[in-house]
Amino acid sequence: MSAVRVHRVVEGPEDGPVVVLGGSLGSDVRMWEPQVVPLLERGFRVVRYDTRGHGASPVPPGPYEIGDLGGDVLALLDELEVARAHLVGLSLGAMTGMWLGAHAPDRVASLVLCCTSAKLGPPEMWADRARTVRAEGTAAVAEAGAARWLTRGYVERHPDRAAFLRSMIAGVPAEGYAACCGAIERMDQLDALPKITAPTLVIAGAEDPATPPEGHADLIAAGVPGARMEVVADAAHLGSYEQPEEFTRLILGHLEAL
């Protein structure tokens, strides 16, 4: 499949180091709002994008593969005339980052892989979710999605934010969400991890029910040469939103150390 011109928001100095933020399945560029200002204050040029099929990006018919999503990011970098960028991704955005690290290493200055997996089964789960979304729309999975994204305590303390994130999931086009489910269903990047040469930080949420540290983040950190792993307490799957100060501290520490 040819690359899609994804929707993007570009902020910061034109001569600043470029940081590309890739989001979770079911999200749009707004999920990264807690990180934008701190990155801008440190002089980075921040590029957020909506994954194909999400937000304001086009919704080509499926199937999609992780390589297609990676190709979209390469096309974005080309259009912005960015030779190399720091890639910060969460969940599906980090899966895309891993693909780029293995297949386009010359374009990747560093990687931050948040709350993600190199192989996330069982495949039947993704096929079932895609069928549900195609039949009933993304509103049918919004409640369960937000429950994976946030700890119960956070939902109780911040019901307005939880409602905002549920509405974000419900607003994703059904075909885009379902086709991305298919990309995750067929993804297996475990054998490609040793090909990644970019300095890599892996961040996990201690209470992430979707990609728990054990069996996901630890496998990535072990597979990528020289990778470092951090586990953030009181964070579920959308850890960058639920624990923004700690995730942002870790991200900035990794980027500025380079």
UniProtKB/TrEMBL annotation:
UniProt enzyme class: hydrolase
InterPro entries from the UniProt entry: AB_hydrolase_1, AB_hydrolase_fold, AB_hydrolase_sf, PcaD/CatD
Keywords: Hydrolase
One Gene Ontology term of the molecular function aspect: 3-oxoadipate enol-lactonase activity
GO cellular component: membrane
GO biological processes: acylglycerol catabolic process; beta-ketoadipate pathway
The AB hydrolase-1 domain, residue ranges: 17-243
EC numbers for this chain: 3.1.1.24
Protein name: 3-oxoadipate enol-lactonase
Gene name, Swiss-Prot/TrEMBL: pcaD
